[in-house]
Design goal:
The structure holds 2 protein chains of 2 kinds.
Chain A lengths: L7 H23 L17 H7 L2 H34 L5 H13 L2 H14 L6 H25 L4 H8 L4 H30 L2 H6 L7 H9 L5 H28 L1
Chain B lengths: L2 H6 L7 H7 L1 H30 L3 E2 L5 E2 L5 H6 L2 H34 L2 H12 L6 H12 L4 H8 L13 H26 L2 H9 L4 H12 L1 H17 L2 H6 L7 H10 L4 H26 L8
Helix pairs in contact in B: 2-3, 5-6, 5-9, 5-12, 7-9, 9-12, 10-11, 12-15, 14-15
The chains are: A mainly alpha, B mainly alpha.
Chain lengths: ~260, ~300
Amino acid sequence: MSEKKPALWLRIYTFIVYLYIYIPILILIVFSFNTQKLNISWHGFTLHWYDVLFNDAQVRMATGNTLIVAAVSTVVATIIGTLAALAMTRYRFPGYDASEALMYIPIVIPEVVMGISLLVLFVMLNMTLGLVTITIAHIAFNIPFVALVVRARLNGYDNAIDEAAMDLGADEMTTFRRVTLPTIMPGILSGAMLALTLSLDDYVITYFTAGPGSTTLPLRVFSMVRFMVTPEVNALSTLWVVIVFVILLIGQIAQSRRI
Amino acid sequence: MTAGEAIQARPARRPLLKTIRESKVAQGLALMAPANLYLMVFMVLPLILITGLSFLSRGTYGEVEFTFNLSNYARLLDPLYGKILLYSLGVGLGTTVFCIILGYPVAYYIARAPARQRSLLLFLVLLPFWTNFVIRMYAWIMILRAGGFLDAFLQWLHITDAPLRLLYTPTAVMIGMVYEFLPFMVLPLYTSLEKIENAVLEAAADLGAPPTRAFLRVTLPLSVPGMIAGTILVFIPAMGMFVIPDLMGGAKTILIGNVIRNQFLTARDWPFGAAASMILMLITLAFTFYYTRKAGFSEELLV
């Protein structure tokens, strides 16, 4: 589209929508440093809530659980999803359309339905609900998203560079490892990044597949904010925002260096 | 056909690895196999299970009785559930409409921004959504609750002099929903709008179309695929949402998602919960098919 200067009303409107997006986050951050508990107005600067947060054993346990689930499900889903993306962009095989349709399930099925159906499966298989079942569920909804992202990257792939490598005497495996893989790595990384964020963010599916002792951070925060407002959650949120921001920044820098 | 069957169809003496190395079809199947297997077991099988479950009934102690019947679906015809279903549809559509109203101008603005700024502007729309969903809703609770930030702000401006008591109302639920799903509308809309070539707009201008007319006759129709993708991405999760009504609607706003959750976790009537899930799924699938048939399953959905 053109680069003409947009109309004044459009600029104001856009600015207001950005305010709508950012004001809640800013309020969260600012009031994590407020001395007063019923944080409506500003009373003074304190790090007290961070101290409370770090000494909260339940939050610490939930953080550990969340990180385990996120790490394992991201790695597994990224591997399986990348293989699927390779299959779908470079090969034609019987059942291709059905395989593709499978990939759209998590987009067209509401989360609550996916959550309860997994719960039913786990109960029928007599599996104890806990970190294992949460991780299995996260892998399931992450595979399609990783595959979609990696596929998008592979669609723009120039096969001539593979052919060049093979003309120079590399076998298929070497070509894949030394040429294809490094080229599509940014795509794989952004797929992994998406899987990681989806896993960290998930409440609904985790809610149905978690058992006693496997509370994740989103579940813990939910029970903390259900009936009251506590600055400890503001402190947690602020740390979360900062950490996510740093990870994204590192990802951006890594990608821009590569390209 | 699975990878195993494909290989068995060949002469049995050939070693598996060799077959895979030589046949393109076998290679494709082998690469696809882990994803297919995993999704069959942990996505398709569970859906088949609840389909079956929806035709069974609940025993006295919450156990499942294996007698085939349609009573769960008959119960869903009760006006009480009909109302909840209609209300959920309304909330889903309302969320979608507000996301378009808020998101379209923003997507348009980003698409017309200088190329260097676009990715930053888009990144800024997405940034808050990399924090946690529950955290975002908590922020809105702080703003909307009686005596919260919105009340304080409005009273400071002397617009109101008493608390609005917005939290735990349907309005609060809508505010939370629109906030949560806005990026799913902006992203595909942007993808569509960004693809429109300058030449097309110049042609419209050269042919004498004033900007408004050019927008209505050229830009808007060309952005329909993005709007449809955004609608699917917003409507489906909004329709099934139960957490936002829980947190921000108090006990007053009950959507179909809340009914399903309650049947599985508190009422322990799994067959009825399964039947409610089937209805929800049928609505969202019908919706998706209707719109994708109109526009094709566009790449906008895959951002």
